[in-house]
Amino acid sequence: MQNMQDDDAIDVVLRCINQVSNADSINPTKSLKDAQIMNLISLNRLRHDILTDRDIGIPSKGFFMSGTWLLNITTGTTVNRVITIVQTHSRRIIP
What is the share, in percent, of the chain residues with pLDDT greater than 70? Predict the structure, then answer.
């Protein structure tokens, strides 16, 4: 199985954060809270968008991932950690 490329994982996570938050800019070394993902509702929207959004989420790149990998992320998780999770645990959808 093929993992998602770094650039694609970065694109997915940043686009999903932008859709959920009102952050002016996103620093990957900072926490999700710094990216304006401030509460459980926003965090759950982010998880949902990453996993299911066919326009900006993992499916938009032809991949899938089990949602269990995102259960342990919190508002204190760094953006880079979310990118790493997406890159490491996503798998190519076999046509």
Answer: 98
Beta strands in the chain (DSSP E): 63-64, 91-92
Q: How many other CB atoms sit within 10 Å of the CB of residue 56?
A: 18
- Among 56, 51, 64, smallest CA distance to 91 is for 64
> For 46-68, what is the mean pLDDT?
97
Q: How far apart are CA 79 and CA 95, in angstroms?
A: 30
Q: What is the CA radius of gyration of the chain?
A: 12
Helix, strand, coil content of the chain in percent (nearest 5): 50, 5, 45
Cβ neighbour number for residue 57 with a 10 Å cutoff: 24
- d(CA 7, CA 83) in angstroms, rounded, equals 10
The SS3 assignment for 82 reads: helix
The token duo for 27 is 């620093």
DSSP class of residue 54? T
